[in-house]
Amino acid sequence: MVGSANLNVMMKAARKAGRSLVKDFREVENLQVSMKGAGDFVSRADVAAEEIIKEELMAARPTYGWLGEEGGGEEGKDPTRRWIVDPLDGTTNYLHGMPHWAVSIALEHKGEIVAGVIFDAAKDEMFYAEKGEGAWLNDSNRLRVSGRNRMIESVFATGVPFGGRKELPDTLKDLARLMPATAGVRRWGAASLDMAYVAAGRYEGYWERGLNAWDVAAGIIIVKEAGGFVQAVNPDDTVLDSGTVLCSNEPIFDQFAKVIRNT
Prior knowledge:
The chain has 8 helices and 13 strands. It is of the alpha+beta class. The chain has 2 domains: 138 residues, Fructose-1,6-Bisphosphatase, Chain A, domain 1, CATH 3.30.540; 111 residues, D-Maltodextrin-Binding Protein, domain 2.
């Protein structure tokens, strides 16, 4: 797919940041003897990746606003457009030397996500989409959500809250209701890639609470353009504002949503 100028800028920034992160990732294994040392190292890698992305995006579109995990938010001269960036989604995986993490970049226009890029640099997989142009993997692979229509044949993904976070009781209740009716639930620790995998048909569905806008912004447009449905756990809320997400292919969405919403 030949993307717009904005999408090409996003992909270039994601690749540049990804190369930096891969280089640093090779050093992580050597730092495991010191938790503080490894943590500090990864934090620096995360900040450096965001600086690379910001430099690339703002050089190309200096009037756009900005929302990044590390640098916070800035309103641009153009109040209708905003970059939403997670320079390293899956930080804990990265810290522990597990190659499942991603760079996530989205473009918001008038409150709607209109383009998104999720780059899994460790596996060299670039997931991307623009409104009305479909969703794609790398240069020419069109993404489509899974066609499975039975919950018992379907695999789902979620994030299990850690460190005593308040979402844990609800998530455990979700799992108790959902797991007996499925082929399995996975917890791989990177929300952006969970959504990319739904778009690619690798999972049938994904849900999670306690998220930030930068965790899911790019995934929203990629899942939608691959033919999937995306809502907040409470259907009256928006995904970005609520910090929750529920997405799947069309055939099982209502069944899946009913289980998670316990309705």
